[in-house]
Design goal:
- This protein folds into two domains: 166 residues, Rossmann fold, CATH 3.40.50; 194 residues, Dehydroquinate synthase-like, alpha domain, CATH 1.20.1090.10.
- The protein is an alpha/beta fold.
- Helix content is 48%, strand content 11%.
- The longest helix is centred in the last third of the chain and has 28 residues.
- The protein is globular, with a radius of gyration of 20 Å.
- It contains 13 helices and eight strands.
- Bound molecules: fe (ii) ion (FE2).
- Fe (ii) ion binds next to helix 6 and helix 10.
């Protein structure tokens, strides 16, 4: 028996107006300092019913630790929200998931958040996610990434009860996304679709969404980069990214994420940039096991970018997008990378990305994949 879990997805132009239909007396908006000052927040607030009281929590850094995520729990608890709305990228949505958990179960430790136990989280508040980047898929996933400052690693926590009730995919909130973030988040989404499609936990539902996600993202991303205000192309990438999030959340990620999480933890490289750096090499490594499935994905790419194999197609598309394909392109010095290699290997081996990767890997394989991006 298996479940396919997904929020109710509200999508397309003007989908933020859905917020006008909720019944909420007290609403907590979780966002970050930058977004708090943009027109996106005004748009969200304007859509909420007139009689809704609003509290905003925005004290969230780029890679929030558990203590940062939960730094305002006392005032949140005394406010007592019936709705939590996350407005932001992956870190913001993941923070809202952790806040929801702590709001429902204040006595529990963060590592008590597991898929194995019913925690009664859903009863505490309705949870709505409004992604302002097109990539992380956090709005459709029941996982949260939390940085552990002591261990210098990223931990992936999961429970079906932190899956948002609603995901609102309004293209107007991503029209102003800067080019660098547009690239790194789109590369993250491409990686989600490809890793979900070959994961050993893949299923018919995740397959269908991964294929469509790849078509929507790769067919529109260059248009978005040339013409950032193109709502139609932005909408396609935004929906594709969410489909990819849903696909990997209901199957699994793989080695590109295991390696990317390790790199991100040590060198603070943006998540999408880090996973995309390793993706072509991981595709080559996995081809022994899932070559036919990669061929099927390769056929989805449009003519001008498609090469004979998926790894080369990805390298070609990435170079057009401005996504680095080597360590130097990611502005990491070779000396520091070599010095960190052993630690990177250890962190990657411990990542959940290893578990459902289609080809089993030993430490020698991980080392070779780390070396594959040195040139
Ligand atoms: Fe990712």
């Amino acid at each position: 028996m298996w479940y396919y879990r997904t929020p109710t997805v509200v999508f397309g132009e003007d989908s933020l107006s859905f917020l006008n239909t909720i019944t909420s007396k007290k609403c907590l908006i979780v966002t970050d300092k930058v977004l708090e000052k943009t027109g996106i927040m005004d748009k969200v607030r304007k859509q909420l019913p007139d009689n809704t009281r609003v509290m905003v929590f925005s004290d969230i850094g780029q890679e929030p630790t558990f203590s940062q995520m939960t730094s305002a729990m006392d005032s949140i608890r005394s406010f007592g929200p019936d709705h939590i709305i996350a407005v932001g990228g992956g870190s913001v949505i993941d923070t809202a998931k952790v806040i929801l958990f702590r709001y429902a179960r204040p006595e529990m430790d963060i590592y008590d958040l597991t898929p194995l136990e019913h925690l009664g989280i859903k009863e505490a508040a309705k949870f709505i996610a409004v992604p302002t980047t097109s990539g992380t898929g956090s709005e459709c996933s029941w996982a949260a990434v939390v940085s552990d400052e002591m261990e210098k690693r990223k931990n992936e926590l999961a429970s079906a009860e932190i899956l948002p009730d609603y995901a609102i995919l309004d293209p107007s909130v991503v029209l102003g996304l800067p080019p660098r973030q547009t690239v790194s988040t789109a590369v993250d989404a491409i990686t989600h679709a490809i890793e979900a499609y070959v994961s050993t936990w893949r299923n018919f539902y995740s397959d269908a969404l991964a294929e469509k996600a790849l078509e929507l993202i790769t067919g529109n991303i260059l248009t978005v980069l040339q013409d950032p205000g193109n709502t139609e192309a932005r909408n396609s990438v935004h929906i594709g990214a969410s489909m990819a999030g849903s696909a990997f959340s209901n199957s699994q990620i793989g080695l590109a994420h295991a390696l990317g999480h390790a790199l991100g933890a040590i060198f603070k490289v943006p998540h999408g940039t880090a996973v995309g750096l390793y993706l072509p090499a991981v595709v080559e490594f996995n081809s022994l096991e899932v070559g036919e499935r990669y061929d099927r994905l390769n056929s989805i790419f449009q003519g001008p970018f498609r090469k004979d194999c998926l790894a080369d197609t990805l390298r070609h598309l990435f170079s057009k997008m401005g996504q680095p394909t080597s360590i130097s392109g990611a502005t990491i010095s070779m000396d520091s990378y070599i010095a960190a290699k052993q630690n990177l290997e250890k962190l990657a081996m411990e990542s959940t990305g290893v578990v459902a990767n289609p080809r089993e890997s030993e430490s020698g394989d991980i080392r070779r994949l780390l070396e594959a991006v040195m040139n």
